[in-house]
Amino acid sequence: YSLSSIKWWHLFEMKPRKRHVLLLQMFGMTAFLASYLDVFYHFHECCRPEWISFNRTALEADLESKLFGQHIASSIILKAVNGFMKNKYPKKPLVLSLHGSTGTGKNFVSKLIAENIYKEGMESRFVHVFTSTLHFPHPSQYLTYKSQLQQWIKGNVSKCERSMFIFDEMDKMHPDLIDSIKPHLEYYDKLDGVSYRKAIFIFLSNAGGDSITRTALNFWEDGRKREEMELKDLETMLTLAVFNNNQSGFFHASLIDKNLVDFFVPFLPLEYSHVVQCALAEMKARRRKPDWDVAVKLVKVVKDLVYFPKTERVFSVKGCKTIVSKLDYYT
Ligand SMILES: *[C@@H]1O[C@H](CO)[C@@H](O)[C@H](O)[C@H]1NC(C)=O
Ligand SMILES: *[C@@H]1O[C@H](CO)[C@@H](O)[C@H](O)[C@H]1NC(C)=O
Ligand SMILES: *[C@@H]1O[C@H](CO)[C@@H](O)[C@H](O)[C@H]1NC(C)=O
User: Fold this and answer.
1) What does DSSP say about strands 164-168 and 127-131: parallel, antiparallel, or unpaired?
2) Distance between CA atoms of 184 and 179, rounded to whole angstroms?
3) What is the assigned CATH class of domain 56-267?
4) How many C-beta atoms lie closer than 10 Å to residue 89's C-beta?
5) Strand-pair partners of 95
6) What's the pLDDT band for 20 if we cut at 50, 70, 90?
7) Smallest Cα–Cα separation from 201: which of 167, 243, 177?
8) Terminal CA-to-CA distance of the chain, rounded, Å?
9) Which atom of ligand 1 is least distant from the CA of 53?
10) Which residues are annotated as a binding site?
11) CA of 36 to the centre of ligand 3 (A)
């Protein structure tokens, strides 16, 4: 039998072995067709511009319309990511360290960055998230984690140099584990034959959150506008707090003194009005029309959150973090 002359009923007349071989041939054909379609129509995500490209306008629009109360973070992120993605020959990978207390938008911003570079966003095969307490829970096993992590980073960047790695809860990570990432962040042309220069590393941590909050509170007490706050008002204090805090992994790791982190990005504590904006955005995402009834409930939900300082109630303790689950409950 040849493939072209075959009629479907022949399949039943054949000896099992022959049928098997023929079926294999036919499936071989489909596999070939599939890969053909893949190459020409890009059905599956691959490490190519059709799937990985950056659109500055879109990121800017997202930061403006979806991230609330973070004018400093917004502008640093936009400049940093745009500059890096435009550069065809970066000298080192982009390393961003996002700092701030819970619910201020650090995870959310990482998601926005991923969505504006990878068509598949956080679902992309080239975006990797490591959470300290989840992926590296036992401090005693850090030696195992260390080699595993280095293997993963190397393996993934070999497959696609435009890979993104997000490290959540960086302050809970074993210092030696942080040290093991370090070689990948350096100005090496190639390390073990792999170039990391187009990769993106994002570190998230609460470290320095307290000092950011204190600065924001001082501003508020002085009657100055939040929007007047600039990076330089926070930068020194932030690096000091992160560096001198022996609780945080950064302390031991020499990421900072070797200047491997390109940008320290502070996230300010959120005020009542920002949490309302978060709630409204969430309602919009759920395609719920904010009718009067819902609006009244919403205001109550946001008012009932915990704020500090206790008497003045300026900043939301959990930022926008709990608002989503609270909305589920009340509306
Ligand atoms: C970039 O994003 C903007 C806003 O989403 C869109 O209008 C524009 O067409 C995009 N540009 C490219 C080149 O994809
Ligand atoms: C890529 O990273 C993931 C973890 O996000 C890991 O499971 C996988 O083995 C890595 N791939 C390679 C080729 O190392
Ligand atoms: C951390 O720093 C504090 C204050 O500087 C000090 O009292 C404490 O002993 C330090 N802890 C460790 C483990 O070094």
Assistant:
1) parallel
2) 10
3) alpha beta
4) 6
5) 201
6) low
7) 167
8) 67
9) 14
10) 100-107
11) 61
Q: How far is CA 19 from CA 7, 9, 158, in A?
A: 12, 11, 41
pTM of the model: 0.83
Q: Which residues belong to the annotated binding site for ATP?
A: 100-107
Query: How would DSSP label each residue in 185-220?
Result: HSS-S-BTTB--TT-EEEEEE-TTHHHHHHHHHHHH
- In whole angstroms, what is the distance from residue 168 CA to residue 302 CA? 27
Amino acid letter, residue 267? F
* Residue 322 CA, ligand 1 centroid: distance in Å: 32
Identify the residue with better confidence: 283 or 20: 283
Domain boundaries, the chain: 16-43, 56-267, 272-330
Q: What is the CA radius of gyration of the chain?
A: 25
188: CA distance to ligand 2 center in Å? 22
Closest CA to 110 of 330, 324, 265: 265
- Residue 107 structure tokens: 């995870």
Task: Return the best residue to mutate from 153, 156, 192 for the ligand 2 pocket (most ligand atoms within 8 A of CB).
Answer: 156
Pair 162, 198: CB distance under 8 Å: yes
Which residues approach ligand 2 with their CB closer than 6 A?
128, 151-152, 155-156, 159
Residue list, ligand 1 pocket, CB within 6 Å: 55, 57-58, 61
pLDDT for the residue numbered 164: 98
Beta bridge mates, 129: 166
Distance from Cα 152 to the centre of ligand 2, integer Å: 5
Nearest CA among 224, 1, 181, 214 for reference residue 92: 181
How remote is the CA of residue 157 from the centroid of ligand 2, in Å? 9
Nearest CA owner, ligand 2 atom 3: 152
Q: What is the pLDDT of residues 161-213, one digit of tens each?
A: 999 999 998 888 888 888 888 888 888 888 888 899 999 999 999 888 888 99
